[in-house]
Write a structure and sequence with these properties.
The protein is an all-alpha fold. The protein is built from 8 helices and no strands. Helix 1 packs parallel to helix 5 and helix 1 runs antiparallel to helix 6. The radius of gyration is 17 Å and the shape is globular.
């Protein structure tokens, strides 16, 4: 299978976890603390993956400066885009409660859809970017994103149902995001395969910055809201899980 097609496959596979989480979140009534706990664990997994699979790789490729520039650029781009979407009703898109209904904020459904796409792009691109160095996917990155996508889909879908959104909207949204995840991973590999190594490193760090900003602004607040004193411990457990996988894979 061509490498570019592998990138698309693994991106779609990781994105498919959103659908898995959506099935649970929409059809099974789970306590808020469990949803928040799973979100905290997924946050820790992603923090570890972006640290040891993305930032470390970018630094080894091109040194500190391209890595730092890319990292802050990714965080800045995500935060500005997220702020704009929050003004349009998508602020609590990952929460299992507090989401606005369409009649409360016209266009909030569309904003939630765009926000979900925004959240998934850095993660999915990271999968394709991880294949640039050796031509094979970083399974740690794929596993980390897959694990973290389950609570994202779970919590957000529970919130969408509570806000009165239909099953066709919810599952149509996550199916589209899973498909877009595959395309974003494919783009991450094909668009940057032949660019200078410093740019590859900067783009890899850009994806890492976008992921960390997403965690700080969407996933971690949801986790803390439901678990409070336990959020730190659960997040650390997720971090350690992905760290072990990263060390074994290395």
């Amino acid at each position: 299978m061509p490498v570019w097609l592998q990138a698309g496959f693994w991106g779609g596979f990781a994105g498919g976890a959103l659908l898995l989480g959506a099935v649970v979140g929409y059809w099974i009534k789970l306590p808020q603390r469990i949803i928040a706990g799973v979100m905290a664990f997924g946050s820790g997994v992603l923090i570890s993956a972006l640290s040891f699979e993305l930032m470390e790789e970018a630094y080894h490729q091109a040194g500190f400066m391209p890595t730092a520039i890319g990292f802050f650029a990714g965080a800045f781009i995500y935060s500005i885009a997220n702020w704009g979407l929050s003004q349009l009703g998508a602020k609590h898109r990952k929460r299992s409660s507090q989401q606005l209904q369409e009649d409360e904020a016209g266009g909030s459904g569309t904003s939630i859809a765009v926000g979900a796409l925004l959240d998934g792009i850095p993660e999915s691109m990271a999968i394709g970017l991880s294949m640039l160095a050796g031509g094979s996917v970083s399974m740690v990155t794929v596993i980390a994103i897959f694990i973290s996508n389950i609570p994202e889909g779970l919590s957000s879908s529970a919130g969408m149902k509570a806000a009165g959104r239909s099953a066709s909207f919810v599952f149509g949204l996550w199916f589209s995001i899973a498909l877009a995840s595959g395309l974003a991973a494919l783009a991450g590999y094909t668009l940057f395969a032949n660019v200078p190594i410093a740019i590859q490193a900067a783009i890899t760090a850009l994806a890492a910055g976008g992921i960390l900003a997403m965690l700080a602004e969407t996933m971690i607040p949801e986790a803390f809201a439901g678990t409070h004193d336990w959020a730190g411990i659960i997040t650390c457990a997720g971090f350690l899980c992905a760290f072990v996988l990263s060390m074994l894979g290395g």
